[in-house]
Amino acid sequence: SDVYGDMVRVACTSDAACGEKESCQVRRQVLDGCTGRQVCAQQVGEKLAGQTCSRDNKCSAGACMETGKCFAACDTDADCTGGQTCITDFTVIQIDDTATLPVNACGVVE
Fold first, then answer.
1. Is pLDDT above 80 for 46?
2. Which end of the chain, N or C, is surrounded by fewer C-beta atoms within 10 Å?
3. Rg of the Cα trace of the chain?
4. Cα separation of 93 and 10, whole Å?
5. What is the 3-state secondary structure (H, E, C) of the chain?
6. Using one digit for the tens of pLDDT, what is the confidence trace for 10-35?
7. Which residues does 1 contact at the CB level (< 8 Å), separation at least 6?
8. What is the CA angle 50-55-57, rounded to 5?
């Protein structure tokens, strides 16, 4: 991947911070291979945050959660749709074999 390009990406906590055709995604931290960060990047798939999914590459943010819904990064409840709320440290996203990142995500409190 383009290391410089990854370094200059805009940090985000929700899709609202990103441009058109971009989503807030979890990516490997460029200078620390064991952690990740949330940045704006070109959408991966067609399904939007919170929509039903079966595979990561179907979601705009490139992550299908264990709940079967596309990952939706959030900072506050206002970032979520469909009656979901922003849950702090909702899940840990596995970026690759060595890197993970705990994230806030839209979800339904059970």
1. yes
2. C
3. 13
4. 19
5. CCHHHHHCCCECCCHHHCCCCEEEEEEECCCCCCEEEEEEEECCCCECCCCECCCHHHECCCCECCCCEECCECCCHHHCCCCCEEEEEEEEEECCCCCEEEEEEEECCC
6. 899 999 999 999 999 988 776 666 77
7. none
8. 90
